[in-house]
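Journal club prep — side note

Before the paper discussion, L.F. wants everyone to see what a predicted structure for a comparable chain looks like in C-alpha cell form. Sequence:
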Amino acid sequence: MADGADDPSVHWVEPRLRAILPLDGFHLSRSLKKVIVSDRFRVTTDTAFAEMMALCAESADDRPTTWINPVIKASYERLFRLGHAHSVEVWLDGALAGGLYGVSLGRAFFGESMVSRARDASKVALAHLVARLRAGGWQLLDCQFITPHLASLGAIEIPQRDYLARLYSVLSEGAGGALGAGAGAAAGAGLPSPPFVAGDWGALDALGAAAPDAAFGAERATGSPPGYVIAQLLT
C-alpha cells in the first residue's frame, strides 16, 4: 500500500486479524438476488483491468485519498499481463459502474480493491467473483480488512495465525512443497513451494456459453453467465 497517490514508496501491511469470505458462506439476500437475476448490469472479466484500477483509485466522498500509486498500478498491470491478476467489471448503460480486481496464487484469490459508482454494483461484482471462484475450484478468498459492507456479504475475521495455516494448506495441495496441517504451519514449518495447483478462471465462462439466453446472443459466449446461473451457484 501507499500513503497516497503521489507517494513514491510502497509499504507492506499484514493485519493481525484477516478478513476472508468463505466461498460457501456468501450472503445472497433476496434483494441482491433479484438484482442479479434481473441482469440489469452487464458483467465482464479481464476486459478493462487498467480502467478498473483507475476507477478504484478515483477519489470519492467516502474515500478522498487512495493507496494506489503509480508503482502499484504498474505492478498490478504487469501481473495482469502475466495472467496472475484478474478484474470483474460491472457495466450499466455502457459505462463502467463498479467492480473489483485482485491477484490469484494457486487456488487462493486476494481481493485488492472494490468500487461502486452505482447502487449494488460492487455487490454484483463480488457475487460474480465468488461464483467464478467456486466454479473454478478456488478454496480461499482473502478480503484483507473487514468492513461493514463485506461483513454484510458474509466476510469474517480470523487471527493471522489461522489465516496463514489456511493459506499454506491451500497452496500445498498437490504442490511441490509438503505442509504439516495445523497451527504449526503458521509458525513457518514446511512452507509450500511452487508449482501451486491453479484454479480455472474460465470455468464459469463455459457455463455462460452453455446457458440459454437469447437476449445476449453470441456475446454471452465470452461473458459471464446470466444472473440466474450466478444465483444458483451461490445457493
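L.F.'s comment for the group: The helical segments are 30-38, 49-57, 70-81, 121-136, 148-152, 160-172, 203-210, 227-234. Keep this in mind when we get to the figures.
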